[in-house]
Amino acid sequence: MDIETLWKEYHASLRRFIQKRVSEESAADDLLQDVFLKVHSKIDTLKESRRVRSWLYQIARNTIIDYYRSRKPMEELPEGLSQSEKDDRRALKDLAGCVRPMIETLSEPYRGALVLSELEGLAQKEIGEKQEISLAGAKSRIRRGRRKLKELMLECCHYEFDRRGRVYDYERKKDHCKGC
């Protein structure tokens, strides 16, 4: 079945179907056009031509749903929540000053591995060579050192994370944290 035949046969009934659900006439016309654009681009996905009517109406229903979702009013954030990118980075800058002192409180095998990997940026293979241990040993020390550092940081502060898991705020739990 071609798109022209579908248009001739179904456009009037689909228009009525959409018009009953969307009050604005121009919006209904736009949605009808969207439906047929989708039909045109997806006609090859129709497996059974005897089910074309239900397929068309499903596309129309989904298009109407998308229309109403896109029209949801956007609420403005309260003033305290809309921070600039500069404010978002404040917490990270403050915490960056605590990382080195906290690493320094770790026992030697972990401290050395973290200094080389996190602060000096060496590859794990290079760390293994420098510390005269295997690559697996270097990976293990770095992993354990990170875990210990994380524990220290979580003991020290309560963190707030954004939806991507990045720190955007923190509050100290204790007055004097280890190393910070």
Any overview of this molecule?
With 180 residues, the chain is mainly alpha-helical. 65% of the residues lie in helices and 6% in strands. Residues 80-86 have low confidence and may be disordered.
Summarize the structure.
By secondary structure, the protein is mainly α.
Total separate domains: 2
Please give the largest β-sheet: 2 strands, antiparallel
Order of helices and strands: HHHHHHHEE
How much helix is in the residues? 55-70%
Query: Could you give me the name of the CATH homologous superfamily of the largest domain?
Result: Winged helix-like DNA-binding domain superfamily/Winged helix DNA-binding domain
Named CATH architecture of the largest domain: Orthogonal Bundle
| Number of E-state strands | 2
Distance between the termini: 72 Å
Percent of sequence in beta strands: 5-15%
Label the overall shape: elongated
User: SS-based structural class?
Assistant: mainly alpha
Number of DSSP helical runs: 7
Strand order of the largest sheet: 1-2
Quaternary structure classification: single chain
CATH class group of the largest domain: Mainly Alpha
On the 0 to 100 scale, the average pLDDT is 83
**What is CATH's topology name of the largest domain?**
Arc Repressor Mutant, subunit A
Low-confidence stretches: 80-86
Q: Give the C-alpha Rg.
A: 30 Å
